[in-house]
């Protein structure tokens, strides 16, 4: 008994450095595997992740460029969704101001990266068409599908929504359309003998409007599921992959157009935005099925406002810094399509109620626009005519 008491009174044995090192490594590995599971398997789009290395392999082994384009487009879908998820995780720690800006940027990361790469490669036509298509896709395709499917699923339920939130986003979109119309009208009204003067004045007007258009949105924070450092590291990795695949898309878009027999305008306005908005599209439809139409409107209208009032002016400011001719003149057909899409959506939501027929109308409008750009065979330089340099000015 005395021996037992003596043994119980002994101080606990200190853990060796080797044991502590093994435990630390085990904790690190356990944390990494948990984050890996949350990031890669925490989305229903995880079956598409193998397409990412397939796209890179297709590029490295010089498969057909149309194959590279297709695989890259598909691979962007899960990466875009995870970038949005990771930006929300970081925004929780960064606060509302930085978090809101980060969410506005990463929420449309594929569109932003594709736009910047197109700007770098001097493919201004693809840039303008893709941003135009993203806005129209959110307004007509995403919202139309959500209203149609959600309306059919909730026929016997009250179908009202918060009109103030929708009006706020639609007002911002009308501001964006005003800037586009003013620049387009200015180009047609001002008829100078020297083209250089017209180009410079149009460019200055576009840059002024872009500064006025820049907006950022606040973000609603939820409880994070992974830490700040892990979120940041994963976000950097996802951004690199999105940049690689987006570069493949921009580099092979002409080859894909020739191989598929589709115009570049159709691919840029219709196909690219459908891929970029796939995650938002699915989320908006799911919330509409659950009769949470306010969230659906926030997704579709909010994303459109972000593109029109953040991505478009941001690309113009970046082009300004890099001394590249990029303005708000999207030409008559493109600008008219954008303005009509905004007006149709505004009139559809003006009474504060939603119905499946309203969604059907928006979808039919999108089908008509898609058919228009399918037959709209136009070269890339249609929406971008490089100005002639006179006395050192562009």
UniProtKB/TrEMBL annotation:
<keyword id="KW-0926">Vacuole</keyword>
<dbReference type="InterPro" id="IPR044880">
    <property type="entry name" value="NCX_ion-bd_dom_sf"/>
</dbReference>
<keyword id="KW-0406">Ion transport</keyword>
<dbReference type="InterPro" id="IPR004837">
    <property type="entry name" value="NaCa_Exmemb"/>
</dbReference>
<keyword id="KW-0109">Calcium transport</keyword>
<feature type="transmembrane region" description="Helical">
    <location>
        <begin position="262"/>
        <end position="289"/>
    </location>
</feature>
<dbReference type="GO" id="GO:0015369">
    <property type="term" value="F:calcium:proton antiporter activity"/>
</dbReference>
<dbReference type="GO" id="GO:0006874">
    <property type="term" value="P:intracellular calcium ion homeostasis"/>
</dbReference>
<dbReference type="InterPro" id="IPR004713">
    <property type="entry name" value="CaH_exchang"/>
</dbReference>
<protein>
    <submittedName>
        <fullName>Vacuolar cation proton exchanger</fullName>
    </submittedName>
</protein>
<keyword id="KW-0050">Antiport</keyword>
<feature type="transmembrane region" description="Helical">
    <location>
        <begin position="225"/>
        <end position="250"/>
    </location>
</feature>
<feature type="transmembrane region" description="Helical">
    <location>
        <begin position="168"/>
        <end position="189"/>
    </location>
</feature>
<keyword id="KW-0106">Calcium</keyword>
<comment type="similarity">
    <text>Belongs to the Ca(2+):cation antiporter (CaCA) (TC 2.A.19) family. Cation/proton exchanger (CAX) subfamily.</text>
</comment>
<feature type="domain" description="Sodium/calcium exchanger membrane region">
    <location>
        <begin position="66"/>
        <end position="201"/>
    </location>
</feature>
<feature type="domain" description="Sodium/calcium exchanger membrane region">
    <location>
        <begin position="231"/>
        <end position="374"/>
    </location>
</feature>
<feature type="transmembrane region" description="Helical">
    <location>
        <begin position="356"/>
        <end position="376"/>
    </location>
</feature>
<dbReference type="GO" id="GO:0009705">
    <property type="term" value="C:plant-type vacuole membrane"/>
</dbReference>
<feature type="transmembrane region" description="Helical">
    <location>
        <begin position="295"/>
        <end position="320"/>
    </location>
</feature>
<comment type="function">
    <text>Vacuolar cation/proton exchanger (CAX). Translocates Ca(2+) and other metal ions into vacuoles using the proton gradient formed by H(+)-ATPase and H(+)-pyrophosphatase.</text>
</comment>
<feature type="transmembrane region" description="Helical">
    <location>
        <begin position="131"/>
        <end position="156"/>
    </location>
</feature>
<keyword id="KW-0813">Transport</keyword>
<keyword id="KW-1133">Transmembrane helix</keyword>
<feature type="transmembrane region" description="Helical">
    <location>
        <begin position="332"/>
        <end position="350"/>
    </location>
</feature>
<dbReference type="Pfam" id="PF01699">
    <property type="entry name" value="Na_Ca_ex"/>
</dbReference>
<keyword id="KW-0472">Membrane</keyword>
<keyword id="KW-0812">Transmembrane</keyword>
